Amino acid sequence: MVCTSCRNATSSVPAGWIGEDEDPTIGYALIECSHCHRLMVIQEFNEWNGQDLVSSGAPVVIWPVRDTQLSVEIPDPARKSFEEARACHHAGQFTAAALMVRRTLEAVCIDKGATTGSLQVKLNELKSKGIIEGKLTDWSHDLRALGNEAAHDTTIFISAADAQDALELAEALLNYVYVLNAKYNAFKARRTTPVAPS
Ligand SMILES: [Zn+2]
């Protein structure tokens, strides 16, 4: 699992499990990250396989959670792809997370009318339309390259840190394109509208 404080994949063994209302299929534990030694509360789901109670997937960190809520201004296809990328990362599926980040970029391009050619061509179209600029253009090309590695090179597995950075850059990109641009335009419109003398 991935530490939500230092972002490293951590292998701590829980000191003990606490059940919920005597339900053996849900367990909670307090663990210490083997890298940064900060504490986390994790939740694990179990199921009966006929003989034993076995884990039914990677544990989920329920505290501390560092995810921010995405703005409602971000259109559904981009938001859902991004949220799936985040869910993959939480479950320790870093290569899948990088793929979903790439898909998030595709969704932004399509939403902004760049619908033909490779993702590289579409991102360049966003740049020429002034939707992304400067560093953001570099970031999106790097995220695209990471996603391509995840998609096409089956010997490569993306690291926890690379997947986390990709998520943070993609979130910044979404906020820039859908939230901050609109905010800035509204701010500029207010500032240039003459105020009636009092
Ligand atoms: Zn840690």
UniProtKB/TrEMBL annotation:
- Pfam families recorded: DUF4145
DUF4145 domain span: 84-170
Under what name is this protein listed?
Uncharacterized protein DUF4145
Provide the taxonomic classification. Bacteria, Bacillati, Actinomycetota, Actinomycetes, Micromonosporales
